[in-house]
Amino acid sequence: MKTVVLRQSCIYGPHQMGIEDQGWVAWFMIASLFGKPVQIYGNGKQVRDLLFVDDLVEAYMQCTLKMETVSGQAFNLGGGPTNTLSLLEFLELLKTEME
Fold this sequence. Notes:
The protein has one domain (5-98). The protein is built from 4 helices and 5 strands. The protein has helices at 24-33, 53-65, 67-70, 87-98; strands spanning 5-8, 10-12, 47-52, 74-77, 84-86.
């Protein structure tokens, strides 16, 4: 059987439900919009690699098109160094965008 594994980072995008333990980006945004507090566990300096859902779908599509090449492999799939933020940085970004 030809298979490939994509280990995904923190995915965000449209239609995300934004419940606290899943979809934290949407959860933070929804809480900010409604003025609700956000609970951060730890010091907030935890860095997350953000991956937009459309980019994830494109990666899946490319894997299916190139299955002969990627079969049997596993890939760490993330947004890359320019798309990493700590939780505190993300909250500050939200605050700035909401003003």
